[in-house]
Each structure stands twice: as C-alpha cells, then as structure tokens.
C-alpha cells in the first residue's frame, strides 16, 4: 500500500477510545467484543472536513442557503458528471436527510400499495423494509454465486420484471461488493426499457471501489435517464453517517419533484453542518479518500489471504467495492446460529446473513455473515485470530 506523504495510515486506533458512549457500533455489544457489523469505518474524520466544520461553527447555525445553484449543487454536478450523469436539468437534484429516506419516498411515489417491487437478494435491508413497510410486496431474485463472483440471474429478473413497475438497484452492491460492469448495466437498462420500469439506483458506495476506471452510473445512458432516480451521499466514503445527508438525482425534474413530494413535509431540511461537511468532502476530500481506499484495499487483500490460509472452509469472493465482506460459513457446524456463535465464542460482532434477505429468502441466507473490515490492521488481525480460534475449535 502506498500512503501519501503526511497523511495517516491509521495504524494506531484505540479500542478504548473508539468505545465512546456516542458510538452505536462500539457500544451495542459487550466491552470485550470487536464490532464488525454496522457500516461505519473506525477512522477519524478527514482533516479538511474537520476544519470546515470548525469554521462553520464559528459563524452560527442558521438555516443554510440552499436556494438556486448553491455551492453544494455545483460541486455535486461536477462530481456526478464523472459518473456519466452530465446535463442534469434545473431541479434535477434534491437534497435529502439521507439515502434511505430517498428509497422510501421512491417506493411511496412510484408504486401503489399491494404492487410488487423488484430487487435482488441479498441486499441492503432497507430495500425490502421500504417495500414491505409501505404495504408493497417484495419480488426478489437471488443473485447467483458464480465462479468469479456474484452474478445476476437474468432469466429470473426477466420473469419478475413483467410483474412490476419499479426496480431497486444497489450499485455497487451491498453486501456482495459487486460493481456492476458496463455489460451488466446495459442488460439491466434493456430490462428496464423493455418492461417499462422505473429504476432507483442506490450508488452510495461508488467512491469506495477497488476497480479501475471511472464509475459508471446506471443512468449514464440516455435511454434510461427519464425513468431513473439515482441516490447517493457522502456517508460511506467519508464516514459521516452521524451527519445525515444525501441527494436524489434525476434527468426528469418532474420525476424528482414527484418522488421528493411523496415525503411531503415529513422529511425535514438538511442540517447546516451536514451541508458544510459534504461541500468540504467534495472540494478538498480527494486525497484523504484516495488514502482511505488504498488502506481498505490492503485490508481486503489481507483478509483474503488470511481466510484462504487459516479458514479455508469460509467461502467468499473478494469484494470489488465497499468495506463489507460477504462470507459464506455454511460449512461451519454452527451455521444455524452463526452470528450468535461468533458473538459468544469469538467475541466478534458481525451482521447476520438473513438480515439482508426478504422473508422468503431468509433460510437460504442463514450461515452467511457480513464482516466490516474498515478498521486498523491491528484490530482486523485480532478479530480474525478470534474467529480462527472459535471456528477452529468447532471444526
Ligand atoms: C447501499 C446503502 N444505501 C444506503 C445506506 C444508508 O444511507 P443513509 O445513512 O444516507 O440513509 C447504506 C448504509 O450502509 C447503504 O449501504
């Protein structure tokens, strides 16, 4: 791993300091547990963000100026252009308090109660919760476990698409870490056009990629632009989930308005500190992000090597994006209650596989875990040693 001069390599994170009462990740489980569940990184705030937040506090905290082409608006437009989302109209961006509210309001605006919504499984759980929680039905198609990574079941998707008006896409995909390729995106676009689907593309993890070249948004092709809402935010790349903010993006300003309106006044406005944070991240956060991605990539490679050498029964594909490894422990004797077993015996907290599956698919996700490797190498190593001891003893 190459580290840029004068920037941290995050070598010395202290569990005692991380276990602050403010931290959900570090306090949900016991004091001796290493938390590798929720998608927060253990790294400190990027220095340019910290500086901007300090400076903003000096000036008071009134309503933020978000009218017209504000600073955030132009920084976002420039960034989105690199994803293939150029030429966004006026009204093509609508800020949100987070990405999840955008998923919920899209489901509310673009479907009727009782209708089916298409998604893949496993997937980030608010996808199916936003569907069932609003009286719609999940139409889930299981990803296929191919030799080189998870693959889309095209036949399954085609069949399911006939019966729905909305597809929720996770790109890059949480929890498998796939970044859908140009060829896959083309087939998904064809599917959407052929079946007249609206598409919501959650692209929150786009900046945390280990693949080469620029990121390609689902809506980077004209033929799907009028039917797509893209959602993103800074909270994964810059580790700022405690300062909720996100954006809804569309080439059809009327569609953006309609989806935003589905939440009415319930959504609230974006916090001033969140806006300041995102502006600083977009303007000055590039070097920090590059270092962080390099660190995460090295952790991913270390994890890969460790599992292959010491825990060969754990099956997985190294992720192309995100700091979340999707591990198949179905060959472990404790597969039936793997999350509980690892918590109790290894004192490592991970997310349980069935969390990421809608009801009908929960049994087949049992035995999988999602492990967050965005921590120091030292803490990651300790966690892996604990898993090895616990699993070693059980095999
Ligand atoms: C794919 C995906 N979408 C959305 C979110 C949450 O976004 P927010 O906190 O902005 O609502 C997460 C959090 O991990 C995620 O992985």
UniProtKB/TrEMBL annotation:
Regions that span the bilayer: none
Keywords of the record: Lyase, Pyridoxal phosphate
Domain of life: Bacteria
Domain Aminotransferase class I/classII large: start-end pairs: 85-387
UniProt source species: Deinococcus humi
Record carries keyword Coiled coil: no
GO molecular function terms attached to this record: cysteine-S-conjugate beta-lyase activity; pyridoxal phosphate binding
Family statement drawn from the similarity comment of this UniProt entry: Belongs to the class-II pyridoxal-phosphate-dependent aminotransferase family. MalY/PatB cystathionine beta-lyase subfamily.
Leading EC class: lyase
Protein name: cysteine-S-conjugate beta-lyase
EC number, UniProt record: 4.4.1.13
InterPro entries tied to this protein: Aminotransferase_I/II_large, C-S_lyase_PatB-like, Class-II_PLP-Dep_Aminotrans, PyrdxlP-dep_Trfase, PyrdxlP-dep_Trfase_major, PyrdxlP-dep_Trfase_small
Coiled coil (residue ranges): none
Cofactor: pyridoxal 5'-phosphate
